[in-house]
Amino acid sequence: MSGQIRPPQLPNCVIVAAVMSDLATIPSNLLYYTFLELKERGVALERLPQWNGTINPLLNMQRPRIAFAQSQSLIEQAITLADDPCFGLAVGMRQKFATSGLLSAGLLASQTCGDAVLFGLRYHHLTGSMLNMSLVELDEGEHAINVTARDPSSPINSFLTQELFANLAQMAQFLYRSHRPFKQMDLIQHEPQSRRFRDVLGITPNFRAAYNRIVFSKSAWTTPLETADPFVLSGLVPVLDALALEEGEQQTFLSHVEGLMLAGLNNELSMRILAGQLGMSERTLRRKLDDAGTSFTRILDQVRRARALELLLQSNEPLDRIAAQLGFDDTRSLRRRLRDWTGHSAAELRAGKR
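RESULT FIELD:
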């Protein structure tokens, strides 16, 4: 039809992987809602040194970016404090449809459930996702989202999967209103409290499965959404593409900064020296770091933390040598920072208490 606005074409099969180093930064969305859930349960995370520097920016809506490895550590502490095998479901339910911002608007504007899934997979990394997701077509012609973890041995994987599934169930309920498009849900984890899962997800998952997976019904996949708006969608795609490109450029820049910091930990390291190595002024470096939602001090702390844990857990280096390699004046400073970072002493960490 002449003059008809067509929605932008997205790939038939999208695989989005969180390809990043442990030092790469991600948005702090998940940490914010984890904090809110624990606060409602009477847990004061702000009293913990590990969380203290993160909570104030979150409450002030500054939306800081946190290193991937540090986010895992903070969430692991929250899971321990919650002492709830379904804690991830609660955090997922705490988030509303609008939580994902522009991504939420794109889901609403998509033509069908299938189009919304493709759109979500294309841009989900912009929300700070800590999981990998891929779309697969099953033998019966049905479609499924497979969810995998970057680190299969991580103790937070069940929490992350629960949170994602609950969030997707919330979105599906908002888009479909009268029913949910899921035919089947599979979870690798054991069965903690199946009734709570059914209440949240609208379906009882198959536990101890080979995959973390959501299978969509054939009819739902092609059903038009009442909220579809190709005009709005055509305006959102270039904006999100630009954000994705900007994030990619920022991650490349931050990786370079982290590499220079890592190489210079045992030498004098300052904003001035780093700016000179990067061939820019201190003011420009400070602005670029601010644009990326981070700072010289925060990245230096993240680099030191990652390197300290690597040396502690994968070598027999004495603490005085580790302290020197990290640029600390003495072992006392290193011990204090280890306690702040992890809540454990060096001896406990080496004994396997993470």
